[in-house]
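Dear colleagues,

As part of the handover before I leave the project, I'm documenting each prediction I ran so the next person doesn't have to rerun anything. This entry is a single chain, and its sequence is reproduced below.
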Amino acid sequence: MQQIVDEVVGVLLPMLKEKPFALFGHSFGAFTSFAVADHLKQVHNLEPVHIFLSGASAPYSEMRINAPKRSNLSDDDFLKWMSSIGGTPPELLANPEVLKLFVPALKADLHVVENYRCNKPDKPLLSCSVTCFDGKDDIPHDLQAWKSITSGDFTTRMLDGSHFYLKDPGNEKILLDYITKQLETSEIDYL
């Protein structure tokens, strides 16, 4: 995860120094957004005005720590699991040549997520607002555990759908409208 954070910060830091910013991350992206925000605060004393996290328990949540490790599944079982959570086009899952490239990369990404660890903060790391989203039909995530990262406002929003609820056009509109309203309220120019 540190390598990912270093790459993201290396690319974005010049822009983030110039004006206020917000972060959004879904699933793997939620962990990345949190890790980037933590790094920016610790190393550069920069903080987003808002973090939007989606489809993931906090990295120190007992629910997450005790969750089954999917990256160690056989390729067949991994593909069955991928089909069960949705979000992957069926034509991709039916193409053996594409799967030879796709499965190792997905398993590697999932391995990073499953092994990312940090301790629950003794005191909030950030002071910005945090909003957590999730699909009502996704596996349960400990969204409330994210509250520990901030002394700012904390909100959760549940939308219809499973893990890839945000791909639904109606949910996409809800997300974009909500995020836009929050950022306009913060009076920032966002990336």
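The helical segments are 2-18, 28-44, 62-65, 75-85, 90-93, 96-115, 169-185. The longest strand covers residues 129-135.

All the best with the project,
I.
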